[in-house]
Structure formats: C-alpha cells, structure tokens
Amino acid sequence: MSQYRSSRRPDTGGRIRASFEFFPPKTDEMERKLWETVKRLEPLAPAFVSVTYGAGGSTRERTARTIKRILDETSLTAAAHLTCVDADRESVDAVIGEFARMGVSRFVALRGDPAEGVGAKYRPHPNGYANGADLVGALSRQGDFDISVSAYPEKHPESPDLATDIDMLKRKMDNGAKRAITQFFFDNDVYERYVERARRAGIHIPIVPGILPINNFAQMTRFAGQCGANVPSWLAERFKGLDKDPVTHQLVAAAVAAEQVLDLVERGVEDFHFYTMNRSELPFAVSHVIGIRPSADAANLSSAAA
Description:
With about 300 residues, this protein is of the alpha/beta class. It has twelve helices and nine strands. It has helices spanning about 10-15, 30-40, 60-75, 90-100, 130-140, 160-175, 190-200, 215-225, 235-240, 245-265, 280-290, 295-305, and strands at about 15-20, 50, 80-85, 105-110, 145-150, 180, 205-210, 210, 270-275. α7 links the parallel β6 and β7 (about 205-210). It is globular, with a radius of gyration of 19 Å.
C-alpha cells in the first residue's frame, strides 16, 4: 500500500480537525471522570467541544455548570447543546441569553427527544419552536452564533423518507446553520451517498461525520435501535464473544473506529465529531492514528498536571 495515501501523509494531522462531545455528569464520581477526559483531550486542540442538553432542558443546570467550568478552566471552545422540546419560546430564548452571557458563541441546535424518551410521539409545545429549523432561526435572530445542527445519513427515525429529512436539513441551513453533525453510522458508503444527495439538494455547509467509538457493544446496539442507525452484521461479528473480555473489546473497538476514520480520510473528509461517552481512551487513540497529536508544550503541561 502506498505511503502517499492521504491517511499516511506526514501532514495529514495538520489538515484534520476533531471535535468532542460530552454529557453533563450526574454524580461527583462522574464529574471526576468527565474532567479527566476533558483534560486528556484538551492538548489535542479540538475545534470545539460540546455538552449535551437533556429532553425538555432536564439537564439545563448541569449543562450550564459543565460549560462554565470548561470556559473558566481550560483553553477549549465550548458549544452548548440546545433543544426546544417541551419548552415555550420565552424559556428557550432565556436559555440562549444565559449561555451567551456566559461567553458561549457556539451552539448545537437540536429539536430534542420527548421527555418520555426516544420513540415517544413528538408534540411541539403550543407556544414553542416547532422544530430544529425554527430553533436555528431563533438563535440567528438573537446573535451572531456559530450554529451546528444534526443530520441523519440513514434518516431520522420519525421522518417518512430521506427526502423529507434532507429538506429539513436545507431549512436549518437556510435559517443560519453553519455545519451539520451526523448521527453515528458504521457504513461509510451510506454517509457518502447522503452527502452527495444533500449537495444535489443545494446544501453546501460541511456535513461532519459523527463517530462513536464502541466502548460497550451491547449499549451501542440499544442506542442504534433507538435512533435508526444500522449495525452491520460484520460489525457484530467482530465483537462476538467479547462481552466478558473488556481488554480485547477495547482493542477491537480502537481498530474498528480507526478503520472507519482512516477510510473517511481517504475519501477526503477532514472534520470529525467524536461521541466520547465521557471517556478519552478511544477518541485519543483514534486521533493519534490520524495524526492529531498534542503539541510539545501541551504534552508537557498535561504531564505536569498529571
């Protein structure tokens, strides 16, 4: 295999950008583990890190607290997730203002899942923003924010078809979205076909692949079932028999994620969004494989802190 493949060029790491997603911790122990993850990934100088926001704003205070700590104690650029489910416009606008005053200039705008959970019927709040496109419009009216939105290579589970789904993405872009971040997927051909279809529909913003390193195959399979992501049979075969072998499971997970990302690099992808599940090992390893490394100064500071 040629040493001049895109993923093997010595300058590849300088062209590739990563971002990382965290969720707000519920306990002191989860807080400790999250902060270990944040500090481990900080030296990689990601484009931004995002913090999720629960259904109906159920994690609002914890999300805000996590965002504030990242802004106050790290060099990272923090993006706040924002949803409009089960909330009136006044409440959502107030949250936008709260984050803006905190210094947040990036948002990940999502319609959000019903409070009853994924799969429950979505009903817009009678006095709220109806969907993700409307929420993006609200953000655009309130400030000059950098807005990311969701995209679904295998279509949103509630959409009747992919054309309807792509039309919604087009509306988000027209209302001010700067980029789309996809739901996780494992078939890169599906992602590539989705991007091509979006481009034909006039969507020109970056469509960043969302990568889920598989810390727990059984848990991932449940997530996939809820969000309509396909789990290929070849993938299931790779993790077969590893339920009680966590060491080998992690090695296989790193190989699977690296394989997917390297293939996307070969296809010309230069931006990746990692769903970390508040763990650093796999995102850090995959970043290393594609050439995203801490600078010498950052590595020294990280070692000193440890």
